[in-house]
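User: These chains co-purify. Model them together.
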Amino acid sequence: MSSNKPSSSVQDELRTLLNEEFSQQESRALASSFRHTADRLANEADSATRNMSVFVNEARQQTPRLRRGVYVGFVATALTAATALVIVLHEEPLPKSALSSVTTLKTDLTMDRVDRLSFVAAKKPRPHIRSVSTTDVADILTDAEEDQVIQTITQSVGYGSTWTVQDSDIDDLLGGKNDGL
Amino acid sequence: MAIILESDAEILDEYRTGQRDRAVTAFVRRHQRFVYSIAYRHLNHIEDSQDAVQEVFLRATQKLNEFKGESTLQTWLYRITVNVCLNMRRKRRFMSFFAIGEGEGERDVASHQQSPASQAVNSDFETYFKTVLETIPTKQRETFCMRYYDELSYDEISAITGTSEGALKANYHWAVKKIAAAIRTSEYYEEWLDHVK
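Assistant: Joint model of the two components:
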């Protein structure tokens, strides 16, 4: 550490400059005031930086430790990833029989699904509409008794069918059967 | 092995080939006043300047092995210190903008406060001297401080600032005369004359 007082060359230079403007006595007084403040600033700096070398050395010790920690962490992660990759790459391929089994299983499952769909379709028959013209019905009615008519209609139309009869059709039917009543 | 590391060359040699802790201790002790003075001139705050000094030496020692000697260690340290101080000032502005920690206003007030011990020993004249120093133009002040307080040669200051030696000498000349003129007309000067008689 350099001494507090400015070196003689710097102080001489200052005094020379001051001599250009002021008397020798005044220059000496001014120069000493400059030197006094320089001493004060130097003392303040020394006081503020006391033990700085200790702090810096401690900080230096901590920094590599931190770096080492990061490095170890990085290496550990890289090793884990590499191990996982090796395991995946060295895993034995599936035997052909396994592939065949899978195909069979898949087929069975597909067929099973088709069967189930057929069953569902059978349970719920699609409703169908059969249209019977009024004249056909009128012909039937003219040739048959009421029970026969119903039976004929039921057979003709079938289970689950809908048959809508309009008023005019009924009139036609009744008129045909009850003609003259 | 040198018993006491006195020169930068010895410090560098010890750092590269000997005990690093010893070299760092010598390195810090040799330049801590210089670095602190620069930091304080830029930050005007004791605690911030102390933080800056530690950061500067930490950065410098991390790169000390790569130091090629193209400039002096002081020149190199000066550049690191100015960079660290600029970063700290930027950070301080950012924190004050978002009102994190102390505000800028509080900081300015705090920066001009001195420790009780320092206040007790500092005369009004010294305080006045510092005030005068703050009123002269930045280039003149920085040249004066580097030449008179840090005792750098004009050659070294020129390498740091990129200003010619002639311009630096002129800056120093004007700075000294302005400070002297301000002191002579102050109310403290008579007291000082009595003090030095």
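Chain B has two domains: 1-113, 114-197.
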